[in-house]
Design a protein that fits this description.
Helix content is about 25%, strand content about 35%. It is an alpha+beta fold. The chain has 3 domains: about 5-95, Ribosomal Protein L25, Chain P (Beta Barrel); about 105-185, RNA Polymerase Alpha Subunit, Chain A, domain 2 (Beta Complex), CATH 2.170.120; about 195-225. The strands form 3 sheets. It has a 6-stranded mixed barrel with strand order 1-3-2-6-5-4. Strand 4 and strand 5 form a beta hairpin.
């Protein structure tokens, strides 16, 4: 796992207005958490940018050096990054202080390697069902990514959590039976199958409706004479003599 140094300062500025002014000076407000304790800090935007643009991404292991802090340095992981919903620029960062000797839970991305046989020869589609998985390990053992070899996959083949090859000391926390990658049939073929299934079901519905109509018609014919007989006026008897 890549480890980088990030310099920061203790932050006295609190409240919306002061924090807003702080951002105008290219400083990012941040908080370092350790269990129930927390420390308010501020970080240069350019320094944070460099930290986030390593191969480890947001899982980068940070050696935080805070000026005038009671600790010379803290080992941290990024907990959360808040962004402006319009401009998408970073407006706040939360960090977790961790111990290098205690296992932690993090999410890491899943990458496919190679071109599936089912895509090249059968025009199938490789679908990423899960783009990241949750793992547990020591901070120094966090992998940058979980790579899956997919070259031999054919249409219908699926890679599950239980099939992933993980580095030593790394444990997957997701359900072992969850699908991660699968090769599906071509889109046109799937559409054709759906249409053919729909056509196969339709005659049954029509046939059922026709049969019901015939039964109703027959029942109506049986009831009709009875109704007419009931409504017919009584015949007058002829007088004798």
């Amino acid at each position: 796992m890549e480890k980088v140094i990030l310099n920061a300062e203790i932050r006295e500025e609190t409240g919306k207005s002061k924090v807003k002014e702080l951002r105008k000076t290219d400083l990012i407000p941040a908080v370092v958490y350790k269990k129930k304790d927390s420390v308010n800090i501020k970080i240069q935007r350019s320094d944070l940018f460099q930290v986030l643009h390593t191969d480890a991404g947001e899982n980068v292991l940070i050696t935080l050096k805070v000026k005038n802090d009671r600790k010379k340095e803290r080992t941290c992981l990024i907990k959360e990054i808040q962004r402006n919903p319009v401009k998408d620029n970073i407006i706040h960062v939360d960090l977790n202080e961790i111990s290098l000797t205690e296992k932690i839970k993090v999410k890491v991305p899943v990458h496919s390697h190679g071109d599936p046989e089912g895509v090249i020869k059968e025009e199938g589609v490789l679908e990423h069902v899960m783009w990241e998985i949750e793992i547990e390990c020591l901070p120094t053992d966090i992998p940058e990514k979980i790579e899956v070899e997919v070259a031999s996959m054919k249409i219908g083949d699926t890679v599950y959590i239980k099939d992933l090859v993980l580095p030593a000391g790394v444990k997957a926390l997701n359900d072992a039976e969850l699908a991660v990658l699968t090769v599906k049939p071509p889109a046109k073929e799937e559409a054709a199958e759906e249409v053919s299934e729909g056509e196969a079901e339709e005659p049954e519905v029509i046939a059922k409706g026709k049969k019901e109509a015939e039964e109703e018609e027959a029942a109506g014919e049986e009831e009709k004479p009875k109704k007419e007989a009931k409504e017919a006026p009584p015949r007058e008897e002829k007088k004798k003599g």
